[in-house]
Amino acid sequence: MKIIEVNNLKKKFKDHYVVKGVTFDVTKGEIFGFLGKNGAGKTTTMNMLTGIILPSEGSFTIGGKTNQEIDQIKRIIGVMPDAANYYYDFTAIEHLIFFSKLKNLKMKKSDLLDILERVGLKGHEKKKVGSYSFGMKKSWELPRLFWGSRKSFFWMSLLPVWIRSQPLKFSNLLKSCPKKA
Amino acid sequence: MCFAASKFFSNNLDILQTDHAESAYVSSIRALVMFLGFLFVMSLSHDAINREVENQTIRFLVTKSARSSIVIGKFLGIFLFWLICILCSFIVIGLFAKQIFVFDFLQIMCFIAYAVSLTILISLVIKKPSHTTFASILLGIALPVVGLWSVISTKFISEIIKYILPYYYIVKGGYYIIFPFFLSILMLLTALAIFQRRDL
Ligand SMILES: Nc1ncnc2c1ncn2[C@@H]1O[C@H](COP(=O)(O)OP(=O)(O)O)[C@@H](O)[C@H]1O
Ligand SMILES: [Mg+2]
After folding, report:
1. A174 and A95 in a common domain
2. What's the pLDDT tens digit per position in A54-83?
3. Count: domains in chain A
4. What is the pLDDT of residues B131-152, one digit of tens each?
5. One-character DSSP codes across B8-64
6. A53, A80, A107 — which closes off a domain?
7. A68 with A15, same domain?
8. pLDDT tens for each residue of A35-52
9. Which ligand sits nearest to residue A40's alpha carbon?
10. Same domain for A92 and A76?
11. Do the domain assignments include residue B112?
């Protein structure tokens, strides 16, 4: 069963095509790496698939929903976007509460604290994210991805940084992540 | 603060009095909102959307909820903040006057709805928060001046402006107060349409 299907997806900024017709599909259960050199258009493609930017041409489906039904797609994917900032006035736990409410996930606070502990942020959950180190900022980003996803999820380019900085915690987290992911 | 200001106005101004009997405090709050409402709402919330787009935190929202929910959520957040502020002053006034001023409250809230929708629209159309900082102060001062002028003036251009801005409807009173609310909905729908097509 195809969980993601991308058909001749294109994106142009002004009159310049940045993504010139991408086609691929991903089967259920498959771990799919999307590689390319710098500036190839990976982030632009991912931004289209996750509803951040709109495709210029072409189409895609995720979990059987088309790009016209992007709001329904948002309910079944977990995304760690390539964002340059966070809500710096929020603490880690406040972020998790906010995001879980955005996704209508019924998470208990103890579950959220447990997630933070598992990525090594125990004791830092009440600190404002603005005061975190780079690695710590990535650490609290990652758990959100897991429980935000029901069917598929997207790791943007931040993942390598995280693996490099916290290899052990990453493998622990992978082990605890649901099988269907 | 609203209450203190209304006390000031009630002693010093008797502007915008309508026919029906009402507390001097209420008409003062209305004058305060009409003169400074745009300035308050806009200077506080001018960057409600463009700041999040610039910081890219909007990407956390837009990958999780519908774009329409984001715009409506922004509207409700700002609107409810002012609703609570003004409701509190009306409760205080109500206790003093031993009377509930429902109509006046609704009238002010229709004006606030207009100001909030306009603020959101501007925060979408003007992409730089530093530019909306400036625009919010400029418009916050200019809109009441132009708005009240358009109600009084007989020039052709004022005939158009007075139907676009909320002042004419507030001065007219009665069921006219619903028009600023309709215009607010119209602006919010425009904002929605713009936001749906925007790359974030
Ligand atoms: N908003 C934009 N406006 C104009 N050009 C853009 C925009 N976003 C990305 N690009 C260009 O598109 C190309 C692909 O970018 P990107 O998708 O980030 O590449 P990758 O993630 O594969 O390194 C780059 O040349 C980049 O400069
Ligand atoms: Mg990239």
Report:
1. yes
2. 999 999 999 889 999 999 988 888 777 777
3. 2
4. 999 999 999 999 999 999 999 8
5. HHHHH---S--SS---HHHHHHHHHHHHHHHHHHHHHHTTTTHHHHHHTTHHHHHTT
6. A80
7. yes
8. 888 889 988 999 999 999
9. 1
10. no
11. yes
Ligand number, closest to the Cα atom of A38: 1
The average pLDDT across A5-23 equals: 95
**Which tokens in the block code for residue A88?**
């710096």
Those residues with Cβ within 8 angstroms of residue B78's Cβ, 6 or more apart along the chain or in another chain: B41, B44, B45, B48, B116, B119, B120
Does the beta-carbon distance from A83 to B57 stay under 8 Å? Answer: yes
Is the domain of A63 the same as that of A122?
no
Asked which of A40, A56, A80 is the last residue of a domain, the reply is A80
Query: Which ipTM was obtained for this model?
Result: 0.79
Residue whose CB lies within 8 A of the most ligand 1 atoms, among A35, A43, A53, for a mutation test:
A43
Distance (Å) from CA A52 to ligand 1 centroid: 13
pTM for this structure?
A: 0.84
How many separate domains does chain B show?
1
Supply the angle between the helices B67-97 and B178-196 in degrees, to the nearest 10.
160
Structural domain range at position A4: 1-80
